[in-house]
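INFO  loader      accepted 1 record
INFO  loader      residues=284
INFO  predictor   begin
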Amino acid sequence: MQQKKIVRVGDIECGADELFLISGPCVIEDEKIMMTVAERLKEISERLGIKIIYKSSFMKDNRSSLDYYMGPGLEAGIKILAKVKEQFGFTLLTDVHYPEQCAPVAEVVDVLQIPAYLCMQTTLVVAAAKTGRVVNLKHGQFLAPENMKHPVKKIEDSGNEQIILTERGYTFGYNDLIVDPRSFYYMNKTGYPVVFDVTHAIRKYGIPSKDSKGGAREYLPVLARAGVAAGVDGLFVEAHTCPSEALCDAASQLDINYLEEFLKPLIELHNVEVKYRASAQVLA
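INFO  predictor   done
INFO  writer      dumping C-alpha cells
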C-alpha cells in the first residue's frame, strides 16, 4: 500500500498516526447552541489530547420536505462559524452545495466538504478544489469504494492534493445504510487520509430525523470501533446539546455530554491499530 499523504488542517496532520475528530452540530442553529458545543469540544480536546475540526452546515439542501429546517444560509452561517473560530481557535469544516458557494466559504472555512450525494458533480468538486482549501470528499452512498478514485482525480487535476475521504455507508434503496469495512481498505489505497462518519451511517432513510426511529444510536459503538480497528485516520461524530430537539439529524447526533466517554476506547484502539499497522499492510 502506498505511503499515506499528510493533509494539514491548521495544526492537525490528517493521515499521521494521531486520531483526529470532526464534530459539531449537524446544521447551524442558534448561536448559543453553537458556542456551547464548541466550548465542550474544546474541553474534550484538552482532556483527551485529541485534535478537533469543528463542523456545522450553513445549508442542508437534501432535506426530505420543504417543512424541514435547511439552515440559516451562507451569509449568516459563515458569520457564526467565524465567531466559533475566533473564540475557540478551531479549524472549520462546512458543506458546499453549489460552485458559487465555494469561494466565499473558503474565506473563512478551512475544509470544504462535498456532500455524499454530490461527490460526482464535476463543477462543484472543481470549484472547491480551485479554492486551494482542503476538500473533504464524502463517499457517495451509491458508489463502489474503488470508484472514489474518479472524483479524487478531478480534484488532483484541478491542482489540489489537499484531500480527505470520508465513508458514511451504502444504501441499497431500502431505507437503510450498510457499512462495508472493505471500503476503508479501498479508500486508503488512494493515499489520502480516510475518515469514518459514524453518525450519518446510522441514519434510517425515509424516516424523518426528528423521529426517534430515524436513527439507530445503539450501533454507534460497534461501528466506530470497527472503523478505528480497520485503520481510519479520523472520526466524524456530529454532536448536539440536546439531540432530540436538534433541527436536523435529531435521531443520529450524539449528545455532547456522552462524547468524551465515547471517544476514550476509540483512542486506545487507534493506538493499538497504529502499533500493528505495518504488519497488516504486508498482506495488502
